[in-house]
Design goal:
The protein is α/β, with parallel strands linked by helices and 268 residues long. The chain contains eleven helices and nine strands. It starts with a strand and ends with a helix.
């Protein structure tokens, strides 16, 4: 649907963590009226409705994505399948009822459990400040095809993680962020995929005591990502006081204890 510049500008001022939801509601409002152009009036109507009925709009969780699925050339992974799987799993858990019981007052958007998925390390969906941040990763290795020493891989790597020696490229695993740009830039197919999946960060948040998500070591498969979120939610639902965020629970329990106890429970 087309947006009038004024309406698009107004939506940009909506807090980022509800912007996508507000945009959807505004487009629904325009469609309901049979309009093909979204105007400021549609935005204002939805804004008032949102403020008056916030509790109805809260669903207990949010899954945000970057613009990767819209065709961003920087994508390291295709995450649509994982996004759907996470949404299905979160919907099954009825987090809204859980929050209603824990919060003991009107539910607001900041109470929701937030998952943010970015398809590359640029992190446009801000995974670092979500309860669970997921970052697509594609790491390189040297394959069979000979290197022409064109230098494209060195040039494209923003982390200075690639250097060229006599035999070809050398990748620094410590510096590599897994953006996959060197693989895409290599004209000879010398650089190929070593691993592909997701980095997972836990417990990020903004607010009065902001905290960046803590990364779990390694690159996870889609199934592992879903498993990690489920285990986090088990622990979170067990220990959250008054609807506090995952980051606060993690700080109190410690990341190690968090996973160890869940492992024991699953193996008993
Ligand atoms: S996070 Fe990466 S893939 Fe997603 S929109 Fe940003 S640059 Fe593109
Ligand atoms: S994947 Fe990205 S960060 Fe890693 S070496 Fe290649 S260009 Fe550099
Ligand atoms: S881009 Fe490929 S061919 Fe060019 S220097 Fe790097 S590895 Fe060699």
């Amino acid at each position: 649907m087309q947006w009038h510049a004024e309406a698009a500008e107004a939506v940009k001022r909506v807090p980022f963590f509800v912007r996508k939801r507000v945009k959807t509601r505004v487009e629904e409002e325009a469609a309901r009226r049979g309009d093909h152009l979204v105007t400021l009036e549609h935005v204002e109507t939805c804004r008032k409705r949102f403020l008056n009925r916030m509790e109805e709009e809260v669903k207990g969780y949010q899954v945000e994505t970057c613009f990767g699925p819209g065709g961003c050339p920087n994508r390291a992974v295709i995450s649509e399948g994982l996004t759907k799987e996470i949404e299905r799993m979160l919907a099954r858990r009825d987090l809204k009822s859980f929050l209603e019981e824990k919060v003991g007052g009107p539910l607001k958007f900041h109470h929701e459990f937030r998952v943010s998925i970015s398809d590359c390390p640029n992190g446009c969906s801000r995974p670092q400040i979500a309860d669970v941040g997921i970052i697509g990763a594609l790491t390189p290795k040297t394959g069979e095809s000979p290197c022409s020493r064109c230098g494209a891989c060195v040039e494209v790597c923003r982390e200075s993680a690639v250097s060229l020696c006599e035999e070809g490229p050398v990748i620094s695993a410590q510096q590599c962020l897994g953006c996959g740009a060197c693989i895409r830039a290599c004209p000879t197919g010398t650089l190929v995929e070593a691993s592909s999946g997701y980095r997972v960060l836990l417990g990020g948040k903004l607010g009065r005591h902001p905290r960046l998500g803590q990364e779990i070591p390694g690159i996870q498969s889609p199934d592992q990502v879903v498993g990690i979120i489920e285990r986090c939610l088990d622990r979170y639902q067990e220990h959250s006081r008054g609807g506090e965020r995952l980051g606060v629970v993690l700080e109190r329990l410690g990341m190690g204890v968090f996973f160890e106890e869940n492992e024991k429970k699953r193996n008993s």
